[in-house]
Amino acid sequence: MNRVVYVNGDYLPETEAKVSIFDRGFLMADGVYEVTTVVDGKLIDFDGHLARLSRSLGELGIENPMEKAQWLDMHRELVARNQLVQGMIYLQVTRGAPDDRDFIFPDPEKTKPTVVSFSQSNPHLVDSPKARKGIKVVTIDDLRWGRRDIKTVQLLYPSMGKMMAIKSGADDAWMVQDGFVTEGTSNNAYIITDGKIVTRALSNDILHGITRSAVLRFAREAQMPVEERSFSVEEALSADEAFVTSASTFVMPVVQIDGTMIGAGTPGPLTQRLREIYIEESCKAAI
Length: 287
Ligand code: PMP
Description:
The chain has 287 residues and is α+β, with helices and mostly antiparallel strands. The protein has 8 helices and 15 strands. A hairpin with a 2-residue loop joins strand 8 and strand 9 (180-184).
C-alpha cells in the first residue's frame, strides 16, 4: 500500500510521513479525530463531521487549525490523490508536540496542533455482507471516562471491548452503565419494539453520532416513532429488532445480544428499511 497522506500541510507518501515522539496525541491521547465516509468518491455528512470536530476541539481548548473550506479541500485532495471510490477519510488533530513531556498544556502560541489525515479503502460499505447477515454483540461494563461526547483518540477501552467480543465469538460489544446500554464500541445502539425506535438520549455518556442524527431525522420523516431514552439490557433482549449506526457501517442490524436471538435472529424489516433510506438519502446529499 502506498497511500498519499496529509501531515501538517504536506501531502506525502505514507512511508515518509512523520510525527514527533513528543506529540501529545502519542504521549497522552490529547487529540481528537473524525471519520468521514466516502461513497462514489463523495463525502457523506461532511458538514456534520466538521461541526463535531469543532466542538470536540473547543471542549479541549485546542484551536481549530483550519477553516472549513481548507478541511474540505484536504478531504477532496486525499480522495483524488488516492483514487478513493469507497472507504473513508480519517483525520486527527492533536494539541501538538511541545519540547518536553508535561501534564501542563503547552502555550498554544508556541505549540501548534498536529494535523494528520489519511484515506482507507473499503469496497464493502454499501454492499456489505455483514449487513445482510447482521452482527452479534455481547454486553460489557462501560469503563470509559465521563466525556464520551468528545471524540478523543483515547480508544483503548473500546478496542479492548471489541477484542472481548471477538474472543467470545461475537462481532462487537455494547457497553452498559447502571444496567442501561450506553453505546457500541464504535457506534450508537438502538432497539425497536412495537415499531418504536429507542436509542439513548444525547449527553456526556455517549458520542453524538453524526449517523445517529441523520438516521433519526430520516426515521421521523418516514413516520417511524422515535424515543430518545435509555434502555436496559433486559429490554434489548426482548426487542423485535436491534441495530447500530456509525459513519462506516451506516445502519447495521444486530441479530444476537449475549447469545439471545433478537426477533427472528435475522436483520429486522424496519432496520433494513432504515439502512436503505440512510444510504439513499445520504449518498444523494454527499459532496
Ligand atoms: N459512538 C462511538 C463510541 C463511536 O466511536 C462512533 C464512531 N466513531 C459512534 C458512536 C458513531 O458516530 P458516527 O455516526 O458519527 O460515526
